[in-house]
Design brief:
13 helices; single chain; 360 residues; alpha+beta; 12 strands
Length: 360
């Protein structure tokens, strides 16, 4: 097919409302009810919502106050990240029984390259069904999957038959699939870009495809080249089984807003301790320290400093954080503080993937 260089079998597995589903799995009283993980009816931000809550417009990243307004019957549940990680490890263990080429995107989703696989099964579609069934049987949760020739199309396809479904886009269907796709469903096209495309008369893939590379680069810069390629089914990014950790962070949202730098330093101490533990667990050090500040009006600010050497200890981290904190006066009371370390000493491991042509 024109436009395709490597032809692979890629599965994108995406757990259904993962955090909320784990809570409903562990607590039968929450099953079938609208729940929000994280936040509260007075403050905080929702981390995840059950499908029952989503019907009322409750979704991740909205305030707890808005979520409760949208759904008065909403039940707020405190996140249990250790439990989510425990479940995620079980799910990923299943993935590795099929292929070593697993690229985790988060606790609840991953790409699998099953071009050649440990089961010797030539059908990526059947493999996806088997993986989803095993997750349900062994973990008790449902997953959705997208299957296609590259990561871009597979990720879009995984959202088509949610929850507890899957969609395969065969090699000879990719172009038609992308041409008919609404532009806001293209992975990587956010709200701002969607509006800009609408203004340019681009509402679906076929209209995007009609624009020249020069036109797209003129209006979207470097992203124009990406849009030009993906609408033609060209996305040659390989499944990387060892993703590089680019930053490690810890943060905390406070029940009562902080208005004094002295109180903030007191709260930054345990945050730095949590960051240090994560760094030591992964044997990671970094050079760039970033202080994240979210004010009571939900505006956010970051302040960073890069050192000439790698650090991972709490003491040195706090020294830099204190300097960043007093760099300028706070413009308002503070509801969240976070510390992250980037510019890390991690190295990427490269893998050679043999590309094969096949029937889906």
């Amino acid at each position: 097919m024109q436009g395709f260089i490597p032809v692979r079998k890629i599965i994108h597995v995406d757990m259904d409302a993962f955090y909320a589903s784990v809570e409903q799995l562990d607590n039968p009283l929450l099953r079938g009810k609208p729940i929000a993980v994280g936040g509260s009816e007075n403050r905080g931000v929702v981390a995840a919502a059950s499908y029952e809550a989503r019907k009322f417009g409750v979704r991740s990243a909205i305030s707890g106050v808005m979520a409760k307004k949208n759904c008065p019957e909403l039940i707020f549940v405190t996140p249990r990240f250790d439990r989510y990680k425990e479940i995620s490890r079980k799910i990923h263990k299943i993935f590795y029984e099929y292929t070593d080429l697993v690229e985790p995107l988060s606790l609840d989703e991953a790409y699998l390259d099953v071009t050649t696989n440990k089961k010797g099964n030539p059908s990526a579609t059947l493999l996806a069904q088997e993986i989803r069934q095993r997750i349900f049987n062994e973990v008790g949760l449902t997953a959705s999957a997208g299957i296609s020739v590259n990561k871009f199309v597979a990720k879009i396809a995984s959202d088509y038959n949610k929850p507890d479904g899957q969609k395969t886009v065969d090699p000879n269907e990719v172009i038609a699939f992308l041409e008919e796709l609404a532009i806001h469903k293209f992975h990587g096209v956010g709200k701002v870009t969607t509006e800009k495309m609408y203004q340019l008369g681009i509402f679906t893939g076929v209209e995007l495809k009609s624009k020249s590379l020069e036109f797209l680069e003129r209006h979207f810069g470097k992203s124009g080249h990406f849009y030009y390629n993906v609408v033609r089914g060209i996305h040659n990014s390989e499944v990387k089984s060892n993703r590089i950790t680019k930053s490690v962070a810890a943060e905390h949202t406070f029940d009562v807003n902080l208005s004094s730098e002295i109180f903030m330093m007191e709260q930054l101490d345990p945050i730095a301790s949590a960051l240090e533990r994560r760094l030591k667990k992964q044997t990671i050090a970094g050079k760039t320290i970033t202080l994240k500040i979210k004010y009571s009006d939900f505006t956010q600010q970051t302040r960073s400093k890069t050192l000439p050497y790698f650090i991972s200890g709490k003491g040195l981290i706090l020294e830099v954080v204190k300097e960043l904190l007093y760099q300028e006066r706070m413009k308002d009371s503070v509801r969240l503080l976070g510390i992250s370390l980037s510019n890390l000493n991690t190295e990427e491991k490269k893998f050679v993937v043999v590309q094969l042509k096949f029937d889906f």
